[in-house]
Design a protein that fits this description.
The chain is mostly helical. The chain has 2 domains: 1-60; 62-98. The protein is 93% helix and 0% strand. The protein has helices at residues 2-7, 9-43, 47-60, 62-97. Helix 2 (9-43) packs across helix 3.
C-alpha cells in the first residue's frame, strides 16, 4: 500500500478521501450512539428504538439545542477573554511590584 502512495498522487488522494469519509461515518455513529444511550437510559427501551426516538427528539427541539449551544459558546468565550485579561493584569502587576 505504501508503494502505491509513493508512485501516484491519485492514490494519496483516494486514501485521504477514504479517511475523510470514514471519519464522517465515525462522527455520525458517535452522534447516534450518544442520543440512543441517553434516550435508552431515560425510557428503558431497546437500542434501535431509542436511537430513532432520540434522533426525533433532537430534531423536534433543534432550535432550542442550537440556541443553547450558541449561549454556551458565548459564555465560554467571555470567560476565556476574562481569564486572559486577568492573567495579563496579574503579570503586569507582578512585574511592576517585584
Amino acid at each position: 500500500m505504501e508503494g502505491f502512495c509513493k508512485l501516484c498522487g491519485i492514490g494519496q488522494c483516494v486514501i485521504l478521501c477514504c479517511e475523510c469519509c470514514l471519519g464522517c461515518l465515525e462522527n455520525i455513529c458517535h452522534y447516534v450512539n450518544d442520543h440512543a444511550l441517553s434516550y435508552m437510559s431515560i425510557s428503558g427501551e431497546k437500542f434501535c428504538a431509542s436511537a430513532w426516538k432520540g434522533f426525533l427528539l433532537h430534531l423536534k427541539h433543534l432550535i432550542e439545542f442550537e440556541f443553547m449551544y450558541f449561549i454556551q459558546t458565548l459564555i465560554n468565550f467571555i470567560f476565556i477573554v476574562f481569564f486572559v485579561i486577568a492573567n495579563c493584569i496579574s503579570i503586569i502587576l507582578l512585574e511592576k511590584y517585584t
